[in-house]
Amino acid sequence: MPLALLALAVVAFGIGTTEFTTMGLLPQIADGLGVSVPQAGNLVSAYALGVVIGAPVLTGIGARIPHKRLLLLLSGLFVIGNAASAVAPTFGLMFAARFLAGLPHGALFGVGAVVASRLVAPDRAARAVSRVFLGLTIANIVGVPAGTALGQQLGWRWAYCAVAVIGLVALAGLAAFVPHQPRGEQSGIRHELRAMGNRQVAIGLATAVVGFGGFFAVYSYLVPMLTHLTGISDSSTTLVLALYGVGMTLGTLVAGPLTDRALRPTLYAGIALLAAALVTLYFTIHSTWPALVTVTFIGAMGSLITTPVQMLLMVNAKNAPTMAAASNHSAFNLANAAGAWLGGLVITAGWGWAAPTLVGAALAVAGLGLAVTGGLMDRGGRPSEVITSSRPTADATEPNLN
Fold first, then answer.
1. pLDDT digit string, tens, across residues 64-103
2. Torsion on CA atoms 154, 146, 100, 214, rounded to nearest 10
3. Residues in domain Major facilitator superfamily (MFS) profile (predicted)?
4. Which domain does 173 fall in, by range?
């Protein structure tokens, strides 16, 4: 079991590295492909578009494929997308390669979360899922800085080569250590789509889009905020982002046990503390150490709510949790786009570099409202079910939502 979770975490590490390294290599990519930096920035959007489309589409296509085989197919597509990114000769082909690399992102996380939850006892399911997400947070500390440095020193194509190699290592680990998990009778695209129609799943996805929109409204502009207002040098921002990653890792580590103990209270507390931290950053951004402590705490709270949102969707999707779990990552990317747009809107309007913190806090409060609304609607009804055992058609458990 630990080796299977490690293999899934390596997949998440590769995904986090390829997703965010592109942002740090935009000048080099633009120069290599003969385009402007803003035009090269569209490659980030291409990857995000792949995530949004690929999560529901690929999980739907693979709805009857056993989970292990589907993980291997998706990991192979991830390797192909990043290898294609490394050799793309023109901007158009590079755009297509980044879209291809993004397609399996959400499906890998969704299927991986379901597989991880079934590797352990039901009362440890959230802990197992959080261990998979740990690969994503560690990528922000190690993978992204290393990939960026590699691309700057040897050429940006080598960064994507390295990610492709990580994907191959993950593929080998999945093949060796993840056990076979049959789909069972209640599988297929109709069951997955029926689960997506659950109103609690819809509210959960809306909570992810709005609540995480607050997180990304600040994360997208963190570097210019720190350089313009805190006075941190450009050369030090990489270390600050790594500190942000440390906070995310700490939040992920505590999210699993707390979610296993009380799912909805963990979600409520995480979003509320995120909103409070974003408001606090508005007042501490002008002082170096208070700003850094606040930034670390924001990273921790952002990651703290990732696991309960994921588990809430799996709980309410009942016997067909894969598409709901995968669509959560489509929601994260929509949150990224919406948060960055709203944060940029207030900066352009002349409200100042600190303004995105208040926008982020408002979005977090709105996300909390959605989460509480979902909890109130769920109260008094039949407890939701999630299959966390190795037998996907029986032994449903009733997790502690309260």
1. 888 899 999 999 999 999 999 999 999 999 999 999 999 9
2. -140
3. 2-379
4. 1-183
